[in-house]
């Protein structure tokens, strides 16, 4: 999916709707299950996020006005179901009362199924090794190819992106081979696809310490992309959907 970046704030969201106090810029990805008719108009939009309600409420009317190019069957446009991801940067404003919003990336494609997938497990040996080395986090970036039913057919670590010992890489690959994915559907038929996703491992003696360790590995930017991926997020390749509208044409 083509990506966009703009250097000016396109909206402001009240600070209280996002966090108790500004803590620097932060990246937020909002996702929707998107249904298009054969003309590429949005006919259904279901949020996948359980937070950032104020931001989502600002974005949804804009998204509903976008025009897309749907998937095709035998060369003819057909109703299409996909996952829409809109990533923004939230920038604390000088008055300390709101966040400015910068649009970073818009993409469509398949995704990880919402439930039923078991997370990779860290073995006692790997835990002991991280404690001895004083490492607190490790990241494995996985590329998965799946069929039209969402079943993985090929799973492997992405060379050069993974920062983890072989034991954690192997555990990630084994787990994700058992996962289920949500493929795009064109005319009701599932489409094979390919995604990448980061898997983070972290340790700490207290929940806050573990959370800080996760922050050290929880975002990864694929080469040539503006999309910054966090734990559980995916970047899809070969989407059947294209955005025709200019995402900056309408103000939030």
Notes on the structure:
With 252 residues, the chain is α+β, with helices and mostly antiparallel strands. It has 2 domains: 11-109, no CATH class; 124-233, Fusion Protein Consisting Of Minor Coat Protein, Glycine Rich Linker, Tola, And A His Tag, Chain: A, Domain 2 (2-Layer Sandwich), CATH 3.30.1150. Helices cover 17% and strands 38% of the residues. Strands 1, 2, 3, 7, 8, 13 and 14 form a 7-stranded antiparallel beta sheet that branches. The longest helix has 12 residues, at 53-64.
- Beta strand %: 35-45%
Structural domain tally: 2
Major sheet summary line:
7 strands, antiparallel
Along the chain, the helix and strand elements come as EEEHEEEEEEHEEHEEEEHEEEE
Radius of gyration: 19 Å
CATH fold-type name of the largest domain = Fusion Protein Consisting Of Minor Coat Protein, Glycine Rich Linker, Tola, And A His Tag, Chain: A, Domain 2
Q: Which spans of ≥5 residues are poorly predicted at pLDDT below 50?
A: 1-22
CATH architecture of the largest domain: 2-Layer Sandwich
Distance between the termini: 22 Å
Structural class: alpha+beta
Instruction: Provide a count of the helices.
Output: 4
What characteristics describe this protein?
alpha+beta; 17% helix; disordered N terminus; 252 residues; 19 strands; single chain; 2 domains; 4 helices; 7-stranded antiparallel beta sheet; Fusion Protein Consisting Of Minor Coat Protein, Glycine Rich Linker, Tola, And A His Tag, Chain: A, Domain 2
